[in-house]
Amino acid sequence: MIPKIVLTRKYHTLTISNGNDRLFINFDGRNLNFTPHGLNTQYILYIPYSGVYVKNCDFTPLRHNSTRYVQVITVHNDYSLTYDIHLSDGKISFAKYLTSEEVLRGFVNNGDATQEFHQVIRAIIHNYLSMGTPIYTAYLKLSIDDEFIRIFKELRCRILKNVIIFYSAGFSVFIKRVGIKRFNLSISSTSAYTDKFRNIVIELLRSALIVHDVRFGKIDNDVKILLDLYLPCTIK
Hints:
The protein is about 20% helix and about 45% strand.
């Protein structure tokens, strides 16, 4: 997984070293602005499976043949965008799209910009919840301390074979332990309980030691049958 740049309102300037040239980028809270003029560089470097760090030095992008590439994530008021930027022969091109949950794979709660990166987590979840579907689901693979169970203390609990189920009206969480401090979680919610879905998913990702995988709109295949039988009962 390649390192990524994160720009927020607080850390919003980036200097890219492009061979003998330097490219300066400023994020104004809405757009990326490319300028040839020098800036006081301060950005967040996100390295999957390592951590997130505040940097004030030039960033050297990946290079393939004569093209250099850098991925920049911007955090807006309530959403996040990803820019795939290509530099070649003095020209700049980029593609822009909503940041997906794939960015969170490999996130480790380590480094001096961890709290700032939590803005990215909230924004990505907002991107998903803005889809307006009747059912929202999340499939998480986490390394996390066993104490995370406290997150569900206000929900009812049932154990079925090797699956722990926490549930309330219109909401359910299926948890499978797959190793020491390793858990797979399938979370489902009707659209009436999106706040509960948002808060619990954010708390899980913020509490995780390592986020191995995040997939919205999906659940663990092993619990699909259980969910079909169980969720209708929780909607009442």
